[in-house]
Amino acid sequence: MKTFAAPLLALALIAAPALARDTVVKVPLADVLAMPEAQGKLDGSVQFFLAGQHTPAIKKKMGSDVSNQKTNAFNKTDEQACRWTILSALISFQNSAKQRGANAVVNLVSYYKKQETRDSETIECHSGALIAGAALKGEYAKIGK
Questions:
Q1: What ranges in the chain are assigned the alpha helix state H?
Q2: How many domains does the chain have?
Q3: What is the pTM of this model?
Q4: Which of 27, 40, 55, 142 is buried deepest, with most CB atoms within 10 A?
């Protein structure tokens, strides 16, 4: 029995780092918004602006929020899993914005493990062997004329 347990223990020690993979993936917001799946889920009533992007005139800020989403990354590329995760976060923001009477989410930043990462074009996502996750922080706003 001992001769059988030793190889299993060695295999577990070797496999553990592979399961703990945490690959940082930068996904352009424009790519997520252009996904065919986004067309059916994001209705256009809420606009999204990353921190550093030019925004239309903000008439009123209406609070802030965080969306922390995860998705199954099994049998998906890191990019595919991250796009799905970010889309889920945007859907969550859209639903909350509508409830608040906002038509935009501005100053969006990546907020993985409560660490802000600002980029005017991309959102940071972390992909592992089984799960991908993205956290976003943003402010609800009323923009326009």
A1: 2-19, 29-33, 36-41, 78-100
A2: 1
A3: 0.85
A4: 27
